[in-house]
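INPUT
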Amino acid sequence: MKILVCLKQTFDTEAKITLDSNGKIESKGVSMIMNPYDEFAVEEALRIKEKGEGEVTVISVGGQQTQDALRQALAMGADKAVLVDPGEIELDEFSTATVLAKTIGGMEYDIILGGFRAIDDGSAQVVGRVAELLNIPVVNVVTKLEIEGGKALATREVEGGSEVIEVALPAAFTAQKGLNEPRYPSMKGIMKAKKKPMDKKTLADVGLDENQIAAKVKALSFSLPEARQAGKVIPGEAAEAAKELARLLREEAKVI
Amino acid sequence: MAANFLMPTRDQKFILKEWLPLEQVLSYEAFSEAYSMDDVDMILEQAHKMCREIIAPTNEEGDKNPAHLVDGKVILPESFKEAYDFVQENGWGTSNLDTEGGALPELLLTAVNEFILGANPAFAPYVGATTGSAKLIQTFGNDWQKGLFLPKMMEGAWSGTMCLTEPNAGSDVGDITTKAFPTETPGVYKIKGTKCFITAGDHNLTENIIHLLLARIEGAAQGTKGISLFIVPKYRVDDNGNITGSNDVTCVGVEHKMGLKASATAMLSFGDNNDCLGYLVGDPPDENGKAQGMAQMFQMMNGARYETGLMALAVAAVAYHNAAQYARERIQGRPLTNPKSDRLQIIKHADVRRMLMNMKAHNEAVRAMIYKTGFMMDVQHHDPDEGKRKMAAAYVDVTTPLIKAYASDVVWPLTGEAIQVYGGYGFSEEYPVAQSARDCKIYSIWEGTNYIQALDLIGRKWTMKNGEVFKAWMKDLKQTIESFGDKPEFAKEYAILSEAYKAYRGIQQKTMEFYMQQKFDLLPLFATRILHCTAKLYCGTLIVDQAVLAAGKMSELGADHFDYAFYRGKVEAARYYVRNIVPEVMCTAGIIADADTSVLDAPEEAFNF
Ligand SMILES: Cc1cc2nc3c(=O)[nH]c(=O)nc-3n(C[C@H](O)[C@H](O)[C@H](O)COP(=O)(O)OP(=O)(O)OC[C@H]3O[C@@H](n4cnc5c(N)ncnc54)[C@H](O)[C@@H]3O)c2cc1C
Ligand SMILES: Cc1cc2nc3c(=O)[nH]c(=O)nc-3n(C[C@H](O)[C@H](O)[C@H](O)COP(=O)(O)OP(=O)(O)OC[C@H]3O[C@@H](n4cnc5c(N)ncnc54)[C@H](O)[C@@H]3O)c2cc1C
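OUTPUT
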């Protein structure tokens, strides 16, 4: 079983996001992590492999720093990593998916996994687009996945419940929270990761040029959420204060 | 409420990747296959993540649910078992003794351990005691002992302890009364005695507990030289490591302590029914009754002293970061210069800033001292050049008592200061830093009280090999100070450190005079203060050494760079430490030169009032 996992490096969930002087998101000095939904995908890939036989390859499109996220996946137990560094150009979901699909197109695979969305831009498009380009089915927001006899049974979230889908392999799946508990890399894992292959490619290596992946979407501006207003303390006896609170909620906040 | 595990990794990364030659360490044969500089961030990040997500959540539970005795067994919070298994099974604990299996160098392990200790200071000793005792078996045990005990301890199935202290023999280890009686089997003895204050002495984390115990074999010499070291498992085991029954070790009580509440401190009784077997480590006493136990135990003790300094640093760091965060959020007081303006975050007040800087500067200075020794330990054990190994070993000898005692003496006032930043809330257990203050007090006491460290410094380390060792260490220090001479931005620091160096030489001379004049009373009177002076001079030198590097980075990167504040902070912390703390060396030198004996002149009865 050949399993490919598409993963992205994102800002740390705890990172404080600021805008630089050009109004772009400031990425310098922000600590980076593997997108948490992709961690579910890596974990699922490892579990599928551990149940039978197989090989897990993790793939990312990004700069050299992205190796850290790939290395974490290797330390968790993935076998190989592929990094495609497109250089200093702006990417949108179309560009990323195109690079991934082109890279994957030259590889063997039975299963493609990824997070259903990335926590930074939250667009939830990339794996779906990759599947489309490769012309294979995709099942989104998967919370349970069973593989047997060239088929997969995937449980996915739908409004108010869940749905079970059977699909023939090869197919792509996107991981939702709840799919599993990702493991932490052990010391031994970190040590072994060093010896695992990390295949670094350029756009040209995968047979693309910048024009073919020019972004179709352009972000016009970014803005930070408004700072939270200071809370209000209502003084006085409890009964009086409660009355005042009710009045404020009705008349000022207009929520009741 | 337990301290939030706030511990940025930036200073550790600065030390490992910019200040100390970790690359040199990783090139040693023991590590070159396993690790490279590229792995450093991942190791630190993953260790930090484990601390945040798995260990830190156990801290509050432990503080609220102290280790307690039920039917002769110590019960710990459930979460401790999970955390213990996790650390041991994932290679962050005792398995680091396995040099074949990719042990981390001491320098890196120091960072990992700083995080673990900061995440839950009451949890870490379960791992630490296991590693310390396993290391003793690894170094001094015979093949059977190593084969039987080490694998189980490294994988986390069994834990370990160090049993030295007895009710009537704390600092006076030489006066222990626990006895060992030979049996028909050579190397196997019957143990009888009571040990107290044993960290991790009993608990429900592991299926067996392996006590490394000091006892006197019948007929051996009195005092420390007649003491032997034994492996005494709580439960007996067969050669395959299966538990076969009781070994007559009972836990008769646990201490109710002011801090480290979930770290079980047990009173243990060995051989109540005359059926407790211990396995001798090394050889039996020679014909003069001289045994090997104390020398063996010292190997562990040096490691434990280093670790105690690190514990103190970790608690101080977490308390500092909590206080700094609180100071950013708490709004109180208007600027003195403009009383009509809005109230401010207290971090904007000079006096609060002073407290934060005092904590930051001490922490960074102490961290520099500890990690530098961590590096020297790697050189000591792994450098291919024998001369360098010896030089490093001597260096570690000198700095160990400084690390143990200075770090653990400053952590108490530093956590007190963290409380002060919180104001009334600091005194409340609903807020994080009260626990830090309670937890840290033990560090100046265990592993040899800080007075014993001070005696070790002036009695042993000053005089080792006719004083050559210390002289070489001082020369190295002097050279580092001299290297600041051509740095105009540190001219003042250079001047203060040079003066402190001179004052320190004065202290040494004066001490020598006391000795020549047979005023022996004065040595212990000033010992602790001399140790503090040594550490202040040393820490001041190291922190300026770091600041020189940081100043270079500052001008290279410019004020707009995201890392500027870090480097600027390092430079200011160094200035603060040298200008505000190091001059105390001059002050103490004056007191010693004056040979003030008010302490000794006061009659004992004076202390009735
Ligand atoms: C929480 C905790 C955990 C511990 N864990 C362990 C453990 O795992 N294993 C173990 O074996 N022990 C352990 N200990 C014991 C610890 O090492 C001792 O408490 C320590 O060695 C001091 O001994 P003591 O308490 O008997 O104090 P004492 O020796 O009575 O000392 C009291 C004071 O007198 C001073 N003093 C003593 N002798 C002299 C002297 N000759 N000259 C000048 N001053 C002197 C000391 O410096 C100290 O200030 C632990 C203790 C605690 C509290
Ligand atoms: C056990 C206990 C008993 C108490 N009993 C009483 C009582 O009986 N009656 C009563 O009225 N109160 C009582 N208090 C409240 C106590 O007096 C306050 O906690 C104290 O005044 C400090 O205020 P705070 O806690 O709000 O700290 P803060 O005022 O928030 O101070 C936090 C830190 O900021 C510093 N700081 C604050 N403002 C400035 C400034 N302008 N410039 C520089 N630094 C500043 C402080 O020095 C402190 O280090 C009690 C508190 C406790 C904990």
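end of record. The interface with chain A takes residues 34-36, 38-39, 41-43, 45-46, 49-50, 54, 86, 89-92, 95-96, 101-102, 104, 561-563 of chain B (CB under 8 Å).
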